[in-house]
Inverse folding.
């Protein structure tokens, strides 16, 4: 379970991106819905320990993430919005390199893990293709494979469906549903349908504050 308590962040320019954000999140997909500028990426980057919060705490299954980023990064996978790929590297090569960084030292084991990930996201047959040739949907699925290396208990996915066509979006949604078994998958989006279709639990963030949280039925009631 992911427990976020009193998270606040003000940037140097005075923008209060997060104001006392608290959430309790069970395993499964949790949708964080909010308009552009709401603070979603700020929250995601903070949870991924890529930027510091001014105050607050985050616990994943009892482990304090913010006080130990080293430990946190072993426990979580993060797919940033608009993540960059190396266009001249193949899917297999990049995942293999990432697996090295993640501490998989045995080449045989690494090959096995990389193959598993590529199969999971349905890119095994394209494993030798250069990433620069991937479509938007393939790229997002590859991003999931990256984030899943090492089987983290928490996956953070920032606005993943924004640029996808309808077919790719459904395919990607199915993948998210599949990988959210037995782990927390935090999905940020400004697309109401993503939350309504995918997320048993959700919250709405606006101007750095949680406006409401609960079941997506709240959305239907609110509209
Ligand atoms: P969202 O992901 O919901 O679009 P962000 O977390 O990116 O929201 O942004 C929240 C607010 O914080 C916005 O007003 C944005 O301009 C501002 N912001 C985001 N990152 C920074 C930063 N590094 N420095 C200053 N302001 C930032
Ligand atoms: P997102 O689209 O994910 O909300 P942004 O486009 O807001 O992200 O931000 C992209 C990058 O620019 C981030 O690293 C963020 O920290 C930085 N950034 C965003 N808004 C501001 C801002 N107002 N001042 C300074 N940096 C910003």
């Amino acid at each position: 379970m992911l427990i976020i308590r009193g998270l606040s962040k003000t940037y140097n320019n005075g923008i209060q991106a997060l104001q006392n954000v608290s959430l309790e999140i069970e395993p499964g997909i949790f949708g964080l819905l909010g308009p552009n500028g709401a603070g979603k990426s700020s929250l995601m980057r903070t949870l991924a320990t890529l930027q510091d919060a001014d105050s607050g705490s985050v616990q994943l299954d009892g482990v304090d993430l913010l006080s130990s980023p080293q430990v946190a990064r072993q426990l979580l996978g993060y797919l940033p919005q608009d993540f960059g790929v190396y266009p001249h590297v193949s899917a297999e090569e990049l995942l293999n390199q990432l697996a090295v960084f993640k501490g998989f030292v045995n080449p045989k084991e690494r090959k096995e893990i990389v193959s598993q990930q590529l199969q999971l996201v349905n890119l095994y047959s394209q494993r030798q293709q250069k990433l620069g040739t991937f479509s938007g949907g393939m790229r997002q699925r590859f991003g999931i494979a990256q984030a899943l290396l090492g089987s983290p208990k928490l996956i953070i996915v920032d606005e993943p469906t924004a640029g996808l066509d309808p077919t790719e979006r459904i395919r990607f949604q199915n993948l998210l549903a599949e990988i959210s078994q037995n782990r927390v998958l935090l999905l940020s989006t400004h697309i109401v349908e993503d939350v309504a279709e995918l997320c048993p639990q959700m919250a709405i963030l606006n101007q750095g504050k949680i406006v409401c949280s609960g079941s997506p039925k709240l959305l239907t009631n609110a509209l």
The radius of gyration is 17 Å. The chain has a mean pLDDT of 93. The pocket of adenosine-5'-diphosphate (ligand 1) is lined by residues 11, 13, 15, 17, 34, 36-42 (CB under 6 Å). The longest helix spans residues 107-120.
